[in-house]
Amino acid sequence: MTFIIREAQKEDMPSVLKLITELAVFEREPEAVVVTVEDLVNYGFKKEPAFFTFVAEEAGTIVGMALFYYRFSTWKGVTIHLEDLIVTQSHRGSGIGKALYDKVLEVAHMKGLKRVEWAVLDWNTTAIKFYESTGAVIQKDWRVCQMTDAGLKKYLESK
Amino acid sequence: MTFIIREAQKEDMPSVLKLITELAVFEREPEAVVVTVEDLVNYGFKKEPAFFTFVAEEAGTIVGMALFYYRFSTWKGVTIHLEDLIVTQSHRGSGIGKALYDKVLEVAHMKGLKRVEWAVLDWNTTAIKFYESTGAVIQKDWRVCQMTDAGLKKYLESK
Known about the structure:
homodimer, 159 residues, alpha+beta, 7 strands
């Protein structure tokens, strides 16, 4: 299998959204995706993009992608957050995921950043094993806490 | 106790760094803070700031702060990440933390964002109880995964 890794263009966003949706199904939350192709184009290609995307292309088809953006740690300064690393089901196990992952890590390394961070589901042992094999560390005592828009509304109106 | 919540200015960054360091001690990682006042000024007050800060001021002294920035969820679009919510030890339990927290949630609500996210230590039951009382949800099956700069170097050079 021959593939190339390249920066995504606006025209790739429909394929990127397809991969995002495929991942949401894998993560058992198919209803959770409310982002549109237009959102991806608007936010990913404005003057100060909200995110950056590498895609993996094989014979003209996008078969994987890594989407990341910058965060600011009050301990470490600017960091990279790897939001999504996705390879379509039919192309897994062929090194595409690793190539995309490496590309994002290279950006962080070249920029001299002190951290790359991402989230993983605790039952996704294949992914965890891979990440740990590269030297990444699972932060066992941190939990992700979220408030939804509905939660915000309810809480702020009850004050 | 009378306090005000306001947007931080460059001049507040030494006080903000002091709070950041105080939190790192509480979280049992006092050595982890490498950020400087200069970093905070440079990244927090450039044209497209890397983060935004509210401070709580009492009688001219900064006694708490909430620092946040924007992220991009491939499911929900633009979200707010609450990086730090800190009240100095001597002023805890007087509503300052809640006032800062509410302020950040209000920004998200006013902008119509679909999510506010942050991280909490699983042994910090006081914080977890407070967050849950406001309608926030702890994502029990997600784990934070991190690669340090040393890890990046080692991994990329071994390829």
